[in-house]
Each structure stands twice: as C-alpha cells, then as structure tokens.
Amino acid sequence: MIMTKNNLTEILFYKYQANGNDFILIEQEYDKNLFLLCNRHMSIGADGILFVEVIDDSINLRVMNADGSEAYNCGNGLRCVARWFFDNNILYSSITIKLSDAYYVAKKNNNKILVTMNQCLVEKYREFEKPNFSYLAVFRADIKNLHLIWIFDHKPDVEKYLKNIEIICKDFLLYNHSFVWMADEQVHSVVFERGVGFTKSCGSAAIASACAWFSLNKESTFQEIEISQPGGKIKVIAIIDKNDKSVFTVTQIGNAKKSFYGFIK
After folding, report:
1. Is the pTM of this model over 0.85?
2. b/e string for 174-202 if b means 16 or more Cβ within 10 A?
C-alpha cells in the first residue's frame, strides 16, 4: 500500500515467513525495480517479494525471487499471503488466490494454512550425463514451476552434488533442485531454489518431492506424507490419477507467520 506523509511517499510492507522461507509482502502492482529490497546486507532482506492486489473476494499475486526473476508458483508464498489476508480479515476462513494463470484456494486449518495446489505432473528424468555420485532415481516435476527431484538412499552432500549436477544437467537453470532421502522414518528434502539459492524451505519443492517419492514408492491412489526441510515440515496430500499415474492432485498444509511490518520511504 502506497501512502503519502509530509509530502513523502511511503510503502507499507509486511514481513512474513513460512518455515524460514521469508518474504516481503507489498499491496501494490508488480514492480521489478524493488528486488533490491531482498538484499540482506543493504535492505530488508528476504527470499522474495509477494505483490498482492485484493479484488472483491480474491487476491491477485505475483512473486519475485531475490534475484529479480519472477516465480510462477510458490507454495510457501501462497500460505503467507493467505495468512496476511486472514490476519486482516478475521471473519474469513477461505480465500481464492490467483498466481500466474492458476487459481488456488487457501483455508484456515487450525493454526496452519491449507492450500489446494491443483495438479503436479511427474516423470522420470534422463537428460543428464552420469553423475559422480550414487542415487536411486531422478524425477522431473511440473507444478507451474519446474523441479528436478534427486532421490537417495543416504543423506547427500548437497553442495558437492549440486556442483556436479550443474555440469551434467541439461538446462540446469530452468529447475529448482531437491535432494530427497529418508532417515529415522522421515522423508527429508533440501532445496536449491532457482533465483534464490539454498533455502530453509520451498513449498512447491516439498510438493514436487512428495509426488516424486510417491512415484518411486507406489502404494495406493491416495497418499499423505510430511516432508521435512531445514526450516520445518509441510504435509502433502495427493490423489493419483487412476488413468495417468504421472498426474497428482495435491493439497499442502503448513504454517505461515507475520514477523514484522514497516514503511519504505
């Protein structure tokens, strides 16, 4: 929201985070020149910016990564926007959010936020040279943004492996890269996010990782799992299409919290 005070223009901003994946939220049109606000040394600091416009009973959302590129899906950002809306509209229990060309319904779920994420498409990925590390499988996931999910039978050395993947992987920069493994009966995921780098959490990557895990361990058409990332856990519920096992209809449940708010002059 843009305000004028003593002939000076001020922009009201909020800082929200979901499992440590933090965002600056501004109620205005998309402005690519504001990406410098994400600089953690010279400005507010964030993994990205959420530009929101409330229209009637819905929200238009655009997401900017820390490097100024645009994100076309953002699971944690959707939960943060929903939490911001519910914080300011306490009588509402659900809200529709438009991001890119898709519509998502967010609902209060006790102290968490539930978001219907529509479809995630998953397939085996083979467009890379042989890496210098062992792995179980690699999946390509499309949930309005693109992910490569590397699944291991051990805890991977993510920084070392990522350097190798950057060399061997075709179109490396198109993807968010997730490293997934199981330990102590918990599925873990570490994410290198396009336009950001390694993050505490990435909602769409948690969903993509869950669907890839379901593809590797096919059990039933209804699946539910918690994905543990460095910043916290996200529950993913998926229904597998009976006619096309590569198509998942997914819902995510996770937290989102306001950190603080302020004004940009």
Report:
1. yes
2. ebbbbbbbbeeeebbbbbbbbbbeebbbb
How far CA 223 is from CA of 90, 96, 209, in Å, comes to 32, 25, 13
Under a CB-based contact definition with an 8 Å cutoff, are residues 150 and 179 in contact? Answer: yes
Among candidate residues 133, 97, 140, the one with its CA nearest the CA of residue 115: 97
Residue recorded with tokens 């050395």: 157
How far apart CA 52 and CA 55 sit, in angstroms, is 10
What would the pLDDT profile of 53-73 be if each residue is shown by its tens digit? 999 889 999 999 999 999 999
| Distant-in-sequence, close-in-space partners of 36: CB < 8 Å, separation ≥ 6 | 42, 43
Residue ranges and CATH numbers for the domains of the chain are: 2-116+255-264 (3.10.310.10), 119-252 (3.10.310.10)
Half-sphere exposure at residue 56, Cβ-oriented, CA atoms within 13 angstroms: 2
Average pLDDT over residues 95-105: 97
Q: Where are the alpha helices (DSSP H) in 121-176?
A: 158-168
